[in-house]
Amino acid sequence: MRPKKIVLAYSGGLDTSIILKWLKETYGCPVVAYCANIGQEEDWEAVKEKGLATGAEEVIIRDLREEFVKDFVFPALKANAVYEGGYLLGTSLARPLIAKEQVKIAKEVGADAVAHGATGKGNDQVRFELTYMALAPDLKIIAPWREWEFKGREDLIAFAEKHGIPVPVTKEKPYSIDANLFHTSYEGGILEDPWQEPPDNMFQMTVSPEKAKDEPEYLEIYFEEGEPRAINGEELTPAALLEKLNKIAGAHGIGRVDMVENRFVGIKSRGVYETPGGTVLHVAHRALEHLTMDREVMHLRDSLMPRFAEMIYYGFWYAPEMQALVAFINESQKNVTGTVRLKLYKGNVMVVGRKSPKSLYLQELATFEADTLYNQKDAEGFIKLQGLRLKVKAMIEKKLI
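Predicted structure:
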């Protein structure tokens, strides 16, 4: 059944500019172009004008910055979520929010279909569509990359040139960029050879460590129940805090990652990321947990972290198992309140101090000097019980019993 009206997740970039025109020609119905402001630098008026000029019935721009940081970035931070040891999930966290708002707009404008610009090889198609299915199973989903005749971005560039559609990607700079308040990612084109070093002029949020400030910078971050609330004593909204920290950390060359990761569809892909403020928050948060979290709670949470990060990466943000994990993670953060002092220098984040009103660290217990809280003789029985099974196994193998 042909749709009556479509809401397209639109950025004004190469793919979605072509898609907007293609949807109009293919389905012959009104298309509403929806843009999510999640912190990327854009001339939103120009994006709106371009969308209307390309055929959109309406261009809707929503400012989602605070919601993005508060409800998506911070939950991942509280879990210390990292995918495959390096990726802080900047794009992965943004997609379910964008799709959620898209569903909301579809209901507002009376649309019966939603469309996205994700390719059939990547992760974003899954992230968008799992969110659509979870929140609005009645909406028709249109994925042009799985339907049209174009084979790759070279075809799209040629199509854009033919139809006079301006796009930011050129043959001289043929890599894909995705930016938001948490990170900027780069993939494709010249980055597809994993042996080639990324050009330094590619990066947008950070300077290279070699060109970073020659003097270290100290800063203090205050957390409350696992969420950052203030920098150097200044309380800020979630988005304002992350924006400020991005500038501070970016000037020190912090947060660059170059990795080959496993996409959900089974393809290995090279991604280059810069997450300056997020990297600092990740280091600071972990340091405060070391001071305030119970050992077994921390170890249990850490055992679940890879699964949590994987679910974010795969697009299962609105799955029931995700909600259950979020509830546990929030409970684990009840005592993660306090301040961490950090030293930033030439791409490095060093923890140099931490304090908390809920600290579990007792200097009189940890000291190597004499204390009255711990009897060292107690360790003897503890060790004997821990080693009993090892001792029995060895005695049997050596026929001592």
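Summary: The mean pLDDT is 94.
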